[in-house]
């Protein structure tokens, strides 16, 4: 969407493209499906963070779809899915116990770069934009609150990733148990 319509970046609040609209609709459907899958497969207790994230995404995306405003912000936030590719590769490599640690090491650094480029940078830019330019009432206040909560979650996930991949000695508590339990980014 951004590749084909880069002019969208000049109007985060009111920019519109059909591909961006369809992307947000499709992503909303994915979040709804994944939420129902977690609930119906009795994974709510172990996946409560994902349920919170999904509820925030669904409510924000539905408000964007209904009002037609801030579509570009949603498209920018969906850049996070690029970094999910490398997080998924990381998880698969850990689960499969690939005998070549070089592949995991390479993905570890690529994952870090992608995390900055496609997760932290867009999130930081949008938070700055919303705090500076968006009215803090109505939909703007709702979306700003969502962004700030997502900021906290993304930073928490980032700290887990750093502890797991770059500072593994910090992972264990004094009793030898994982500090965070069985979390996705650590396992």
UniProtKB/TrEMBL annotation:
GO terms for cellular component: plasma membrane. The keyword Glycoprotein does not apply. One of its GO terms (biological process) is phospholipid homeostasis. InterPro entries: TLC-dom, TLCD. Pfam families: TRAM_LAG1_CLN8. The keyword Membrane applies. The chain crosses the membrane at residues 72-93, 113-131, 143-162. This is TLCD1 protein. It comes from Ploceus nigricollis.
């Amino acid at each position: 969407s951004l590749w084909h319509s880069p002019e969208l970046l000049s109007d985060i609040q009111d920019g519109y493209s059909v591909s961006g609209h369809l992307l947000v609709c499709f992503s909303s459907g994915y979040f709804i499906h994944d939420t129902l899958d977690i609930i119906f497969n009795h994974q709510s207790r172990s996946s409560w963070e994902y349920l919170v994230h999904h509820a925030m995404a669904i409510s924000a995306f539905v408000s964007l779809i209904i009002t037609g405003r801030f579509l570009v912000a949603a498209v920018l936030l969906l850049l996070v899915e690029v970094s999910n590719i490398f997080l998924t590769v990381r998880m698969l490599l850990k689960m499969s116990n690939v005998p070549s640690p070089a592949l995991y090491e390479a993905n570890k650094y690529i994952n870090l770069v992608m995390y900055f480029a496609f997760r932290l940078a867009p999130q930081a830019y949008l938070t700055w934009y919303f705090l500076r330019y968006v009215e803090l009432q109505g939909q703007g206040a709702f979306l700003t609150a969502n962004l700030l909560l997502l900021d906290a979650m993304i930073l928490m996930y980032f700290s887990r990733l750093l502890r797991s991949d770059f500072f593994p000695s910090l992972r264990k508590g004094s009793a030898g148990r994982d500090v965070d339990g069985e979390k996705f980014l650590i396992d």
